[in-house]
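Hi there,

I know you've been waiting on this one. I reran it after we fixed the sequence typo, so this is the corrected version. Both the input and the resulting structure follow.
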Amino acid sequence: MDKLMELVAPTLLDLIETRKAIVGIIGLGYVGLPLAVACGWAAFPTIGFDIDEAKVAKLNSGQSYIDSVNRDDLRKLLAGEKFRASSKFEEIKKCDVVVICVPTPLSRHREPDLQFVVMTAETISKHLRRGQLVVLESTTYPGTTEEVIKPILQRGGFRSGREFFLGFSPEREDPGNKAFGTMTIPKVVAGDDRVSSTVIEAFYRCVVETVIVVSSPKVAEAVKITENVFRSVNIALVNELKVIYDAMGIDIWEVIDAAATKPFGYMPFYPGPGLGGHCIPIDPFYLTWKSREYGLTTRFIELAGEINVSMPRYVVGRLEAELDYTQKASLGSASVLILGLAYKRNVSDIRESPSFALMELLERRNASVDYYDPFVAMIPETREHAHFAGRVSIELTPEKCQSYNAIVVVTDHDNVDYQMIADNSRLVIDTRNVFSRKGIASSIIVKS
């Protein structure tokens, strides 16, 4: 340990190792709240910060709004004084470790929107004190920690690596994944300097099972982008193959399942009605934007984005053709049920769900549209689809199924009676191959 480490880091390292460090998590959404709970279970006194007073009140009363956070666990942490929520950001000064978990959406022009990250960094800078560790977890382009966060935090005269410590650790949350959670997913970390790297590694080793240290925040930021570009490109590939094979009368799902029997050189990805969730539809475009600074184009990534964004239109086209062929009905006079609003099965997470794009496309064509989702009773307020707020999920009954010209399966939740749907519907557009997987065959089911 060099002289700087001896002078600056021991106090914080001691607080971390003895679990006396107070942890502050800013942003209590799908990333921040599970992380706050994980820190609480690691015996750190944890404060969760959010500007939403309703969220703060709900959490402090022991109620969770995130599927992966158990209400009983939350109440145990509250009772043990290992977690509490707050909207008073001046309490950041009390925290020894501050983790930023705020949204990083895209603008309407598909450019990075870092307003929440910048605002959070500015808030932290007002309360920054000597000896704190600040970590960015929000997904962003390589260079954000050093080029955006660091200058803001250093405005008051404190220097990263000396008076405070700075690092990046990409979130890897996967809502609904029963095999891996916050504490069991390997954690990539990087400090802005050698001292910061030592401190950030020490903190996360107390919270998660496996920590992977990389050489710089830029590398860690690139890790997250690479993971999501990989998925986006491969999903785009199978989406394109689906369109081609549909035209040839070939079942893409049968092809993928057979190809997946090869024990090497192949990894199965599955097509769908479009991408959802915060990561895959958004993160690759952060790299696309940043690459322009270097005079480079990201043709592969942009092409994948174009293909994935086009899938809702493809589904609507198939629906229109099938309505005309089977019912001699036009899309403009049809009643359509969207089955599944969440972006993936068995969760309530609706971020960037392709269901919204489908609903908008159908309503522009004057179709009458309802939705059913056992996990989403009512559509909440969202930034991009505020006009849908307040719509309520229908009750799924045989009579209701019979009343629609078509049902479009967008999300294949497990707790849905698919046999009842097959027995009582006039037309089903299955974008997830759920009926075939469940062994349900019917002439009214069309894969798309």
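Quick highlight: The two ends are 60 Å apart (CA to CA).

Best,
R. S.
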